[in-house]
């Protein structure tokens, strides 16, 4: 093993929150592998980020079968890191994967059939060089597969010992309620719901947050920086190396609107007053909600990761700050 983690990793600033009513605590900041960890990316940079994250109390790593590009390569790189550095620390890590988006050719390579999920979990475990994932998510409600089929496959995956917990992601509210009930009745309750939540996307506030709280399910918020828009990066145009500019990125230049950037510029005043970066303000804002157990950030390099991690030194927003942010966002 060519890595010795920092001894003070659990006492050097990270904050942990209970995930719903479960026995699991999650770091308020988790690291996601959607972008920046595939074969097209620099492995050494990716490894440095994971080491730095682990050294600073991030023990939750969020993956999915299709992360890359190419699809599967983020999990393969993670598996290489496990072998190279983290295997002795497996019990300190909370690792998630997901299935449900298009992954391989043919009629079974996408959606959430039993056939897809059973094959996918095995593929993910092989790629990641681990025996089980801590949480396995249904990545989305696909609108085609009967929910009972998807839920029973998830329950069976837990019974097979391939996942410790189940999670759901991007489910419309009625489908979510049905799925939660199914899992509860089956004795494998849903641990966490993963949804997009940031200053520019507040759909989760309509019902998801409240329902998760009432059912004792933790909320794990993804894209808390709106894929980078809630940082200072786009204040003066679209940098060539940004996600919006790169062809493989899921952020489109058309998503970076002048209206949003004008709001980010106003948010910067509040961030400056707090002695924070815009990204730290944006993360603290998502975490102001008690229902949110963790935000999953993306980072392209160590500087971005360090910047986001500093959020934990000033997490609380006072009422006047929250009201001023509300005024800007409306
Ligand atoms: N369940 C789902 O369906 C789902 C969907 C999406 C995401 N997720 C999870 O959530 C994770 C995070 O999503 P995300 O990558 O969209 O999160 P995000 O934190 O909103 O965006 C991350 C991007 O913002 C930019 N950035 C980050 N920190 C910065 C900083 N300090 N200063 C300037 N720019 C900064 C970087 O983009 P540049 O490349 O432009 O520098 C970075 O790649 C994913 O990796 C995945 O694990 C889950």
Characteristic key phrases:
330 residues, alpha/beta, TIM Barrel, eight-stranded parallel barrel, two-stranded antiparallel ribbon, 10 helices, 37% helix, binds NADP nicotinamide-adenine-dinucleotide phosphate
Structure, explained:
Helices cover 37% and strands 15% of the residues. The strands form two sheets. An eight-stranded parallel β-barrel has the order 3-4-5-6-7-8-9-10, surrounded by six helices. Strands 1-2 form a two-stranded antiparallel ribbon. The protein has one domain: TIM Barrel, CATH 3.20.20.100. The termini are far apart. The longest helix has 17 residues, at 258-274. The chain has helices at residues 43-55, 73-86, 114-128, 147-159, 173-185, 208-215, 258-274, 278-287, 302-309, 319-329, and strands at 16-18, 25-27, 29-32, 60-62, 94-99, 133-138, 163-169, 190-196, 218-222, 292-297. It is α/β, with parallel strands linked by helices. Bound molecules: NADP nicotinamide-adenine-dinucleotide phosphate.
In short:
The protein is an alpha/beta fold and 330 residues long. Helix content is 37%, strand content 15%. Helix 3 runs parallel beside helix 4 (147-159), helix 4 crosses helix 5 and helix 7 runs antiparallel to helix 10.
Helical stretch count?
A: 10
How much is the radius of gyration in Å? Answer: 19 Å
How far apart are the first and last residues' alpha carbons, in Å?
51 Å
- For the record, what CATH class applies? Alpha Beta
Write the layout of secondary structure elements.
Elements lengths: L15 E3 L6 E3 L1 E4 L10 H13 L4 E3 L10 H14 L7 E6 L14 H15 L4 E6 L8 H13 L3 E7 L3 H13 L4 E7 L11 H8 L2 E5 L35 H17 L3 H10 L4 E6 L4 H8 L9 H11 L1
Parallel strand pairs: 3-4, 3-10, 4-5, 5-6, 6-7, 7-8, 8-9, 9-10
Antiparallel strand pairs: 1-2
Helix pairs in contact: 1-9, 2-3, 3-4, 4-5, 7-10
